[in-house]
Design goal:
Structural class: mainly alpha
Radius of gyration: 17 Å
Number of helices: 9
């Protein structure tokens, strides 16, 4: 049996590392972010990590960590998930402004689309592998290929670009369409 043969709709597979979506029916409502939290969340979407946010805002690293903890709670994000997953949830829940991209959307294969969705929704490599239907040993190389195809510098930027291009949600009208500007 290969990873492509796994049925992801079975309850046991859904339970393994599946991120509960805050946007599905039956989930608790998203708590709107306070202005201070929204500012910190926007910094996360803009690619800053908590340490850099502390340096830029003049707030202590402990304060920023506490704010990020509270932001995670408001969008029902597990405490140990990676920043790209948190950024995906913030953008999906429309808690922060979606940055626009003047980069044209690249042509991605169906496998790259699956990988994109997997890294936006999962933290652990084995969960990403299951969701992308690839072997765990292939996650790193598939991610590097996806970053190269999109021109993203890291996974957080990849998630932001994917949202701007409408690949992980609604497409904003100000985004350059595929092939435009080439």
């Amino acid at each position: 049996m290969t990873y492509k043969d796994i049925n992801l709709s079975t309850p046991s597979v859904r339970r393994i590392g599946a991120l509960p979506s805050p946007l599905t029916a039956g989930s608790p409502p998203i708590t709107p972010l306070k202005p201070t939290h929204q500012s910190i969340a926007q910094h996360l979407v803009n690619g800053l990590d908590p340490r850099n946010i502390a340096a830029e805002t003049g707030l202590s690293a402990n304060t920023i960590r506490q704010y990020v903890h509270e932001i995670r709670a408001s969008v029902h994000c597990p405490p140990r998930c990676k920043l790209p997953v948190l950024v995906h949830l913030l953008l999906s829940a429309q808690q922060v402004a979606l940055p626009t991209s003047d980069r044209p959307m690249p042509e991605l294969s169906p496998e790259q689309h699956q990988m994109l969705k997997a890294v936006a929704e999962h933290t652990a490599a084995r969960d990403i592998a299951l969701a992308a239907r690839i072997a765990p040993a292939d996650v790193r190389s598939a991610l590097v290929d996806l970053l190269d195809a999109t021109g993203a510098g890291d996974v957080t930027q990849l998630v932001v670009l994917a949202h701007a291009w409408g690949l992980l949600g609604a497409r904003p009208t100000s985004t350059v369409e595929r092939g435009a500007g080439r």
